[in-house]
Amino acid sequence: MGKITGFLEIEREDRDYQPVAERITHWHEFVLPLPEKDVREQAARCMDCGVPYCHGTSRITGAPTGCPVNNQIPDWNDLVYRGNWDEAARNLHSTNNFPEVTGRVCPAPCEASCTLNIDENPVAIKTIECEIADRAIAHGLKPEKPHRKTGKKIAIVGSGPAGLACAQQLARAGHDVHVYERWAKAGGLLRYGIPDFKMEKVHVDRRVAQMQAEGVVFHYNADVGVNVPADKLVKDHDAVVLTGGSEKPRDLPIPGRELKGIHFAMDFLPQQNRRVSNEPQGDVAPILATGKKVVVIGGGDTGSDCIGTSIRQKAASVTNFEILPQPPEHENKMLTWPDWPLKLRISSSHEEGVTREFAVLTQKFTGERGQVKNLHCVHVDEKFKPLPGTEFVIDTDLVLLAMGFVHPLHEGMLKSLNIALDQRGNVSADTTAYQTSLPNVFAAGDMRRGQSLVVWAIREGRQAAHAVDKFLMGATTLPR
Amino acid sequence: MAQLIFDLKNVNPAGDVSVKLVSEVGVGTVAAGVSKARADHVTIAGFEGGTGASPLTSIKHAGSPWEIGLAETHQTLVINRLRGRISVQVDGGIRTGRDVVVGALLGADEFGFATAPLIAAGCIMMRKCHLNTCPVGVATQDPVLRKRFKGQPEHVINYFFFVAEEVRELMAELGFRTFDEMVGQMQMLDRRKLVEHWKAKGLDFSKLFTKPPAAKDTAIYRCEVQDHKIKDILDRKLIAQSQSALDRGAPVRLQAAIRNTDRACGGMLSGEVAKRYGHEGLPHDTIHVRFAGTAGQSFGAWLARGITFELDGDANDYVGKGLSGGRLVIRPPADSGIVPEESIIVGNTVLYGAIEGECYFRGVAGERFAVRNSGAVAVIEGAGDHCCEYMTGGVVVVLGRTGRNFAAGMSGGIAYVLDDDNTFKSRCNMAMVELEPVPDEEHVAEQEFGVDLESHGRVDVMSDLTVKDAERLNLLISNHARYTGSKRAAEILANWNHYRPLFRKVMPVEYRRALAEMAKEKAATMQAAE
Fold first, then answer.
1. Scanning every residue of chain A, which has its alpha carbon at the shortest distance from the alpha carbon of B142?
2. How much is the ipTM here?
3. Do B127 and A50 touch (CB under 8 A)?
C-alpha cells in the first residue's frame, strides 16, 4: 500500500472513450489511456486489504470473489504507485498470461469485489492492469524459453484464450506443444469473436510470436475430427488438451426461422474481423448490416458486439431485445458485494445508438420472397410468460441471434473420440485433474465449463497445464 | 493476585473480577490459584481468533488451542472443589454454536466472542485497525470513516440468535435440558475423528477427556458466589463517618486505629467518591483521616482526590497503588525510638501505577518504589532497589541513599536524588536516562516554606517540568518537612545552598525530547494566536 490514506484523498478516475461520432468511423480501439501520473495516483487508492477480496481467493457464496486468475492486485498496485513498472509486469505475468487482453475486454470482477466498492468507487484495477501490460509490451515481450526439454509431446486443440494459456504454460515447462487450430489464424474468440474496436488483433499476433519463440508449434486449418483424425492425434501425443470452446449457439426455433437474413452472431462477427485484417472469407456469402434495419436478439456481450459492428457498418437502425426484465441501474451493495452484481450495464456499443428493449420475446418471423421483413414480438413477465395485449411488430432486414452458446460442438472431434459429456453437454472433467473420460485427454475452458469469460478461460488453461504437467512428470512447479 | 483482586473488589464491589489466562499445559494449577484468590471469572484464552492489528506471526504461531487449557482448568478445579465458585470462560476464535457446546462439554460456563460479532457488525478483516483507515468505519474514530459504518445492533443480535439456535439444537440432540447440565460432560464428545486421524497417531488424548471424580455434593459448574471478605472492613466505617462529605462535600476529619489485617484501606472510600464525583473527586483535604498503627497491604489504594490519609506508624506493600489524586502522609509515631531516615516505613512496590496525587513518607521505602508511576509526586528519605522502574510521569524525590538499578526502563517523569557521597551514578541504570545537576536559581524564596502544593506555587512549578527545578525541589522538600516533621528535610532546607548541588536530577532522554517538542508546539500556537 503506497499511500495509506490514498483512498480518502483521491477520486476514482478512469480511461475515457473517443467521442461516438469519431469512433464509429473506424475499427480501431477507442479507449484513451490515462497519463502515467494519473495511473500511479489511481493505484494509490488501493488499501492493501488484509483479506483482499479482489484476489479471487475468498469465498462468500459459491464462487471465489474477484479475479479468477488470482492476480495479486494490491501488490502490483503498490509497485505502480512507486513507479516500479518492471516488477509490476513480472508480478502480473506470474498469474496472467495475457494481461493486455484482460486489461481490455475483462468485465473486471476484481473491481466489483474491491473493498472500496462497498460505498465508493472501486480502484481502477483494469486500467492499471492494462497500463502495466502495455508498458511491458512496449519494452518488448521476451520469450521465456524452458531451461530443459522434457521430451513429452502435447497437442492442444483450439487456440482460444484457454488453449493459448495452456500451451504457453506447458511450453515453458519444457514440453513440445502443438496447437491445432481450425481456422487460418490463432486466437479463437480473441481473434474472430471480439471486434477490432474492442481489441485489435496485433495483441494476439504478438503473443503468438512470443509463444512460437518459446517453442509452441501452431498447425492452422487443422480441424481435429474432420481433416485431422482425432484418434491418431491422441495416439501420437503424450497428452491432448481440448480447448475448443463452447461453439454451439442457442437457436430460436420459431416460425419463420428459415427465412433469409437471420444469422447467428458468430456467423456475422468473424466476417468483419477477417475483413479488417484482410483474411480471405472463404466460401461464404457476406453478411453486412450496411443500410439495414438490424435487430439483435440477446442483451449480453455478444449482442453488444453485434450492435457496435452493425453501427460501424452503417446500419440504418439497430434494435436490441433482451428477454430478461431490465435490471436495476444500481445494485444493492449490502447484498451483492463482493460478488458480481446484477445491474444494468451500458457498454460502449450501447452508447453508439441502439434502441434497447427488455422483457421481449420474439414469437414469429415473417417475410417476403424468403427474406425476413418483420419480427412479431410480445412483452413477457419475469417467468417469460407473454403479457396479453403487449404484442408488437417491428420491421427488419437483418436479425442477429446472440442468445448465448449451449455447449461445444459435438459433431466431429468429440463424437469421434467418444468422450464423456456432462448433463449440459460440455466435456466432463473436474477442476483439479481436468482429466476427461480418456486418460491422457484433458479439457479446459468453455469446452469444459460452458460459455464464460476470457479470464476464466485463462484460469482453466493455466490450471489444466498444471494438471497435465503433473500427469506427465509426476510433479509440477507450474502454478495453479 | 489475591491482593489485587481484593483491591479491585474494594474499589468497585459491584464489578466482577475476571482473570484471563493463556491456554497452555499447567494452566489448571494457575486457575486453581485464581479461584482461591476469589476471582469471579477465569478466562482461558486460546490461540485462534486474533486482533486485526496483531502481526501475522503472532496470530499464526503463538499460543495453544483453548480446548487443552480449558479441559485442564475444569478438571483441576473440580478435583480441588474450587469449581462451583468461579465462572470458567473460554475465548479465542469461538464462532459457532458447536464451538459453544464443545466448550461447555469440556467445562466452560461462559464464552467470549469477538471476531465473529465484529464481522456481523460489518468488519471485513482489513487488518488495518492500527492505521486508523478502517474503510468500514469499525476500528476508527475518524468521523469521515465512521460514516461508512453500516452495522446495526440487530446484525449482532441476529448472529447470536443463530449461535443460540445451534446450541439449542445440539443440546436437544445430546439430551440436555439446561446449559448447566451440559458443563463438564466431556464423555459426550465424539472423539473418533480426532483420535483416529492419522496425524494423531502417537498422541494420547485421554487426559483431555478425563472426567474428574467428583462427590455428589461437589459442584462441577458455577453455582456459588465468591466470598470476597469485604463485608465488615475498615472502609465501611470510614464511609459511614464521611457521609456528609460524600453527600455534600462538607469537610470531615476522622481518626482511626489501623492493623495490618486492614487491607486496601481507602479503596472502597475512593470508590464511593469516584461513583459520585468521577475522577475529579472532591476539593483537597475534604476527607481527612488520621490513622495510627501498622497498615495492611495496599494502604491508600486508588485514593481519590479530596482524601488525605495521615498515618502515624508504618505500612506494608502496595501503598498508594493506583493513587488517583489523594494525599498520603506516613511518619513514625512521635514516641518511636527508631531513626526514620535509616528505617523502612513502607513496603515494596509502593505507588504501583499511580496516576495522580502526593505522598510524603518519613523513612525509607522498599523495592520498586514508584514502579509504573505516571503522575504522582512523592518524597521519601531512601529507597530499595529498582526505584522509579518503568516510570512514565510524576516526580520522585529521594532524600537519601537508593538501591541499585534506579530508573530502569524509566521513560518519563523526573527524579531528584540526594547524592551526598557522589556514588549515585553507580546505582543508576543509565540506559534511558541522563543525570543532571539541579541548577542554581537565585530566588528560591524562603517564604515558600509552607505554601501548599495546590496553591499558586504548585501550579507554577509543577506545570512546566522543563524549568524551575530548584524551586520545585525546594517546594516538595518544604511540604515534606511540614507534613511529616522530617528532621532531614528541615536540615536540607536550612542548608539549602550546601545541599542543592548535591542533588542529582534523573531525566529520561525521550521525556526531555517530548517536553521540548510540546513546548515548541505550544509556543507556535501561542504565536499564531497573537
1. A8
2. 0.79
3. yes
